[in-house]
Amino acid sequence: MAEAKLIAHRGAEIVTRDQLKAYVTPSATDTFKPVGHYLLVETLTQVMQDRGLFIAREQFAVQKERLFGTFDLEWQKMDEYGAAVGFRHANDKSMPITIAVGARVFVCDNMSMLGELITVRKHTAKLDLAEELDRTMFRYMQGWRKLKDDIQIQQEAEIEERRAKQLIYDIFRQKVLPLKLFHPVVEGYELATRDQKGTGWLLHNACTAPLKTLAPAPAFRATARLGKFFAAKF
Prior knowledge:
This protein is α+β, with helices and mostly antiparallel strands. The protein has two domains: 12-144, no CATH class; 155-233. 40% of the residues lie in helices and 19% in strands. It has helices at 37-50, 129-156, 161-173, 182-192, 200-208, 216-233; strands at residues 12-15, 55-63, 66-73, 81-90, 98-105, 110-113, 118-119. A hairpin with a 7-residue loop joins strand 4 (81-90) and strand 5 (98-105). Helix 2 packs across helix 5, helix 4 (182-192) packs across helix 5 (200-208) and helix 5 (200-208) packs antiparallel against helix 6. The longest helix is centred in the middle third of the chain and has 28 residues, at 129-156. It starts with 11 loop residues before the first strand and ends with a helix.
């Protein structure tokens, strides 16, 4: 399996878990309680372990006050894909802690996500981080079952060339993906279907693979939008 890599540009920096300790958390106010990047990762890890969700690989990218990360899990590993967690948050009030139900696709090492993201309670003064994250991971495990069902449906859904072209057109017409990824998506799908029948899952993977070239924030948004698009189509 190739190593996945979060792309660091537009001010983003790839960091390790230990390096997260160096990022200073803004001071709290009466109504705003920022959560340190390292504290979030450590608390999330502990909550996951308490539910039997152990991390096989982790990646982090920091963009000013924003943190993006992915966890590949030992839980629910299969031949083609396995459970994964995507998350983001910011200490500048620009976005709350958000968890994404994801699957790491081993063949091209890309991430597919369920369209519905789980938003944790905002950084208020009364935020109990461990309690909120525990509730979130319970919802994650429920969401994973839906994602797994969606993947199976897409794997079994054969699509003719004409419908594949229509779906690709709709993806870019609806701005689910940026237009600059049009050619990589088309080329990826043509390569994937050279020796086998096209399916919804092959097309989904052809769309998510090029997202590794985007910065963390737009990649996160686009992956979630794709999940919602394919769940609606299959």
